[in-house]
Amino acid sequence: MKKTSSLLNAFSAVIKRDLLLAYRFRAELINPLAFFVMVITLFPLALGAEITLLKRIAPAIIWVAALLASLMSIENLFRADYDDGSLELMVMTPHPLSILVLAKVIGHWLISSVPLLFIAPLMGMMLHMETDIIGVLMLTLLLGTPVLSLIGGIAVALTLGLRKGGALLAILVLPLYVPILIFASSAIDAAMTGFAISGHLSMMCAILFLAITLTPLPTAAALKMSLS
Known about the structure:
- This protein has 228 residues and is mostly helical.
- It has one domain (7-227).
- 86% of the residues lie in helices and 0% in strands.
- The protein has eleven helices and no strands.
- Helix 2 packs antiparallel against helix 3, helix 6 crosses helix 8 (131-158) and helix 7 crosses helix 8.
């Protein structure tokens, strides 16, 4: 019982620490959000006042912008802890490293992706999306963005000790992001054409649960390799 309580305390402490650091260094918190808004804003400027075209491609624009914003921020998942030695202390704690890694990923998702969920409806209205389609978009983002952080964590752990690992990180991560992007786009397309979306959302839920279950262990192993 004491072990469980201690593990839960450590889990929550890691999340609270990351949130506090993000609050202190708010510029890093704003950068992915500003990037997300700028990428989406450029499309209406480039395509002009084609409302029908914007409405049709709006979900894809928002999802690709969210994916790129997540990729932009994922490199910082373990970087600060690696630089200041906190990561080595985390490895040496008696708690399972995979659980602490999961806490780090949850903290990253709260910092980098949750703000996008709040701004995405405004971006959808700017692109002339209908209200019910915006609801489906929000649901896909809620299910899909944690997967982006969980999968990205493995690639970040593998490239942590490398110089200029950003390009390699993108090469490793982007192919793994494709399935969640496909199912999210398919769900929104089905909603726009009046078909059922339950199958697509079920697949996204399955991918999310698999990612939560399977990714912390290889991420922890990759971190130990990077530190050795």
